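Sample intake — FixH family protein
Collected from: Xanthobacter autotrophicus
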Amino acid sequence: MTTYSMKRAAAAVLAAALSVAALSTAHADITDYEFRLVQTDVKQGNGAIVAVRLVDKRSGKAVPDAVIFATRIDMAPDGMETMAAPIEAVPSTEPGVYRFKTNLMMAGGWRLSLGAKIQGETGTLENKLVFKAVP
């Protein structure tokens, strides 16, 4: 094999390797992310803290810096969707964990609905998480 042929073969192998690498680093889809409850049981009462972790399902890693623009908390799991409570975001010390303060006035099933934008991704992530308020 000539030097020219060897260089050409090496270039072809390199081009093929780069093509495979480019395909394997395809962008994520908004469905590759989800919110997960940090705890499924939360102490009932005013000032209750509900914490969620935003996770990249492909890697299992927490995702920081999402912009949460929609929040709602209600008792839909117990058939009382109209029983909603005020909810506000509060600071978190852990990257990828988002905390909310609310008034869980009754023990029972509650649903936290979230809408968020994730840095670098198109589309909106929407999740509904069910947890229990306990006395």
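Post-analysis note: The chain has one domain: 30-133.
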